[in-house]
Every structure is written in structure tokens, then in C-alpha cells.
Amino acid sequence: MKELVEILAKALVDRTDQVLVVQSETEKSVHLQLTVAPEDMGKVIGKQGKIANAIRTLVKAAAVKDGRRVHMDIDQ
Predict the structure, then answer these.
(1) 41 to each of 57, 61, 64, 67, 74, how far by Cα in Å?
(2) How far is 40 from 18, CA to CA, in rounded Å?
(3) How much is the pLDDT for 11?
């Protein structure tokens, strides 16, 4: 799931070198922390959060295969 978020984020931003995804796991859940450059925050979040919600939806769909829950945060 970490790789999925990283690929999606790098496709959206201008400063791909500043994309960082940190994954922490428990038995039944995964927490992802996406960090991007401040000037790229709008591109990752989108209008009214639509792009961020779309990324979360894709990650949750990937997590269903593993029977896990996913929580994703976006920071700068």
C-alpha cells in the first residue's frame, strides 16, 4: 500500500523528490503518512478534498484484500 500511495502522489506533484510515505502497521490496521512539499499540497488534496478522498478510496480497496483497515494522513 505504501508503494501505491507513493506512485499516485509522485504522479500528481511537481517536486517528486520531496514525496515521503511512512507506513506503520498493526495486526488489523495500517497507518500511512504522506508528506509532500508545501507548494504541492493543493495538488494532492484537490478541490474540496476530492483527490485526497480518491487516493484514500484506492488504498482502502487494496487493503480489503488483506482484511485490514487503512488510515492515511497528508502533511507538508
Answers:
(1) 18, 23, 27, 30, 8
(2) 10
(3) 96
Tell me the per-residue pLDDT of 8-52, one tens digit each, with 9 for 90 and over.
999 999 999 999 999 999 888 999 999 999 999 999 999 999 999
**Backbone angles phi and psi of 34, in degrees to 5:** -100, 125
- DSSP assignment letter at 67: T
Q: What is the span of the domain harbouring residue 47?
A: 1-74
14: domain CATH number is 3.30.300.20
Region 63-68: mean pLDDT is 87
Contacts of 15 (CB under 8 A, 6+ apart): 36, 37, 39, 40
The C-alpha angle 70, 27, 6, rounded to 5 degrees, equals: 40
Domain count, the chain: 1
